[in-house]
Amino acid sequence: MPAPAQDPPAEAQALEQVLRGEIPLTTAIGLRVESYDGSELVLYAPEEPNRNHKRTAFGGSLYSLAVLAGWGMLWLKLREAGEHGHIVVQTSHADYREPVAGDLRARVEEEDLGNLDKFLDTYRRRGRARIRVEVGIDGKGGRAMDFHGRYVVHR
Amino acid sequence: MPAPAQDPPAEAQALEQVLRGEIPLTTAIGLRVESYDGSELVLYAPEEPNRNHKRTAFGGSLYSLAVLAGWGMLWLKLREAGEHGHIVVQTSHADYREPVAGDLRARVEEEDLGNLDKFLDTYRRRGRARIRVEVGIDGKGGRAMDFHGRYVVHR
After folding, report:
1. What ipTM does the predicted assembly reach?
2. Distance CA B76, CA A150 (A)
3. Torsion over CA: A19, A105, B100, B103 (sign)
4. pLDDT bucket at B135, cuts 50 / 70 / 90
5. Does residue B67 sit at the A interface (CB-CB below 8 Å)?
6. CA–CA dist A145, A66 (Å, integer)
7. What pLDDT shows up at residue A8?
8. pLDDT at site A7
9. CA proximity to B69, closest of B136, B155, B123, B150
């Protein structure tokens, strides 16, 4: 049985507490859950702690924000389905299309997940399931970084 | 003309200064250049600031250490060849094979680079060249993470 629907901003706040409470590096990165409306999640990090020597974003910071956006979207979707589990990234691919100047924002939409219904069904039956998540980071000229991650969730 | 050979430990120290001076997040990660002997580079980061909620290493920290190890190896090899340039990661693939408990070490050997001679030749002729770098992070049961990055160097 799905849990009762939660207020998306409250869910965003809960996710931020989990991420900042359990992964110390998120504090160094300055991570915030900027928004979640039930179908789109945006993670934010300020420019300064994440810059490189060229005053654009460090590739490791962009990646960290993206991998956490994918993790966060799965955490939210599991919670909305009345489930929970250990979420682990298995493989990832990152494509740096252009440098990112200024603050960082990683964006993931529900439609950027693999088949969520099938994933939840498999998870309920087997206690373990995999799903692919696509995350984007926007730059001034459009999409600056594409991230694809495959995550496994297990009880 | 290649520059005179440098003392590898002095080169390691120079690389650490560059990484820590120019990318603030390396301080949060606690990055150190643990060793460089002219053919193998090892970057180190302590467990505590890089752990996740399961007290194993956060995937973003593992990735950051790996992408910097690839960057660092290219920086060293360019310097040894009497060259310098802007080194940028273009694409990457990470395969998390098992969790990493304890401190983090990313290892790259000269043989894990694509064709270095061809890369340097192209760079000298065109002022721009690409090269693939493989980096590994070891865990208790062997290789814990494989990283493949494609980097571009330009003047």
Report:
1. 0.94
2. 33
3. negative
4. very high
5. yes
6. 9
7. 79
8. 80
9. B136
Question: In this structure, what DSSP letter does residue B9 have?
Answer: H
> pLDDT digit string (tens) for B63-109?
999 999 999 999 999 999 999 999 999 999 999 999 999 999 999 99
B42 beta partners: B35, B107
The domain that holds B41 is classified in CATH as 3.10.129.10
- What pTM does this model have? 0.94
Q: Measure the CA–CA gap between A12 and B137, rounded to whole angstroms.
A: 33
Say if B125 falls within a structural domain. Answer: yes
CA A120-A64-A103 angle, 5° bins: 115
Asked if residue A110 is part of any domain, the answer here is yes
CB contact under 8 A, A60 and B54: no
Q: Is the per-residue pLDDT at B1 higher than 70?
A: no
Q: How far apart are CA A51 and CA A59, in angstroms?
A: 9
DSSP state of B4: P
Q: Is A52 within 8 Å of B96 when comparing Cβ atoms?
A: no
Are A145 and A97 in contact by the 8 Å Cβ rule? The answer is yes
Confirm or reject contact between B23 and chain A (CB < 8 A).
Answer: yes
Identify whether A2 is part of a domain: no
Contact B23, A53 (CB under 8 A): yes
In the three-class reduction of DSSP (H, G, I as helix; E, B as strand; rest coil), residue B146 is classed as strand
Whether the per-residue pLDDT at A40 is higher than 60: the answer is yes
| Domain that includes residue B124, residue range | 8-154
Return the residue matching tokens 């589990």: A85
**Residues in chain B within 8 Å Cβ distance of A52:** 22-23
Answer yes or no: is B83 within a domain: yes
d(CA A135, CA A70): 7
Per the structure, the count of domains in chain A is 1
**Residue whose token pair is 């050997």:** B109
